[in-house]
Amino acid sequence: MKPSIQFAKRPDGIKIAYSRFGKGPLLVCPAPWVTSLSHIFEDSFAYNFWEQLSQKVEIISYDKHGCGQSDRNRQDFSLESELSDLETVIDSLKLDKFHILASSMAGPIAIAYSYRNPHKVIKLILYGSYAKGQTLAKDEVKSALVSLIKASWGLGSQTLTELFIPGADAAETQSFEKFQRESTSREVAARLLELSYTLDVTELLPLIKQPALILHRDQDRLISLDHGRYLASEIQNANFKLLKGNVHPWWLGDTDEIIKEILTFLCGDGHYEATKMPTEQKTTRKLSAILSADVKGYSLLMADDEVHTIQTLKAYRQIMSDLIQQHAGRVVDNPGDNLLAEFSSAVDAVECAVQIQNRLQKENAKFVKDKRLEFR
Fold it and tell me: Which residues touch 71 (CB under 8 Å, ≥6 apart)?
């Protein structure tokens, strides 16, 4: 599996990153809470899961607006904005008939899309999902989780990891915490979590006509088993499959049974056998050019005017991210005032750095001289 990331543009100009890989029946995967295509391709746990599926089906996955490699500056948090991302990828690829596989928060989006497009969606698979977000937890618990993420993305991601994968080993814990923090900012993560609690497609469930498969782990602490049972009882042509385990993400824990159920439902192949990825993968070398940037005197600027500095930094990061993508690079990390990007070509890295400097010098002229940010 050697997938590449491409981009589709929404009617409002927002760029959505997507990837298409594998061979077989088309399987569209709506984006759940937070997403990172880069993580799917680089993390050994996620890679193993998607590699197994891609042996029998062609997968189409994407980063939602505000996450991963898609445009990050997001203000609209609604069911319609989530559907817009999904519709943009489907329309861009001119897909006619396909299956849908959705997990967690992506479930309500998949249900709404399947209802609106019964002529396109052949079969629907929902894993660890729900119909009414208001019933996921007590109000005080929901409020506490959102507040924690807003206050500290590091502490918030650690707390959520305990809910997503209780009792996980050190490798799984590190992998999932990294996935969350790399997917998006704490502000977007909190807003998306708030949105997940407001989604409600209960009235659409009896109207879903496609054959559906509902998968749910029996000890899931994030979205309890009752939610899976409710989906199966309300969707007319649904089969329910109870899975063992307490891990919420489908690419962690015992994934073999999940993959088998998905492929059997889609392909009618009851003879699927998991092919384990080697525990020790061969190390490969590659040449990379690294671009590093930080703000000169950042601490003093923050002390002088924190709000203005943060707003300006966000605007500059968007400019830098766009230019990095235009020069075939990728943002590796951006903690605090730092930004780290990787290029396969030193020429691309240098040209990108020059254009960033020229562009930001022009932007600096728009701000009061003593409030400008100077990258080095």
Answer: 14, 15, 16, 65, 318
What is the reported pLDDT for 375?
A: 61
Q: How far is CA 30 from CA 103, 112, 124, 145, 341, in A?
A: 8, 11, 11, 24, 27
Write out the H or E segment, with its range, that includes residue 375.
none
> Is the pLDDT at 303 greater than 50, yes or no?
yes
Token pair belonging to 205: 């469930």
Radius of gyration for the alpha carbons in the chain, expressed in angstroms and rounded: 21
Q: Are 188 and 149 contacting, i.e. CB atoms less than 8 angstroms apart?
A: no
Q: Residue 335: beta bridge partners?
A: none
Q: Answer whether 108's CB lies under 8 Å from 133's CB.
A: yes
Residue type (1 letter), 129: S
**CA 19, 21, 26, 28 torsion-angle sign:** negative
Token reading at 93: 């690829």
Question: Over the stretch 19-40, which tens digit does the pLDDT of each residue have?
Answer: 999 999 999 999 999 999 988 7
Q: At 127, phi and psi to the nearest 5? A: -115, 130
Q: Is 24 left (phi over 0), alpha (psi -120 to 50) or beta?
A: left
**pLDDT for residue 253:** 81
Helix H or strand E encompassing 279:
none
Closest CA to 251 of 155, 333, 179, 154: 179
Residue type, 195: L
Q: Are 234 and 202 in contact, with CB atoms under 8 Å apart?
A: yes
285 touches 44 (CB < 8 A):
no
| Residue 123 DSSP SS3 | strand
254: phi then psi, degrees, rounded to nearest 5 = -80, 100
What is the rounded CA–CA span in Å between residue 98 and residue 116? 14
**Does residue 206 contact residue 236 with C-beta atoms inside 8 Å?**
yes
Task: Return the biggest CA–CA distance within the chain.
Answer: 68
CB 72 within 8 A of CB 318: yes
Which distant-in-sequence residues (6+ apart) come within 8 Å of 141 by Cβ?
none
* Residue reference for tokens 């899309």: 113
Q: What is the pLDDT of residues 214-259, one digit of tens each?
A: 999 999 989 999 999 999 999 999 999 999 999 898 888 888 999 9
Distance CA 135, CA 43 (A): 32
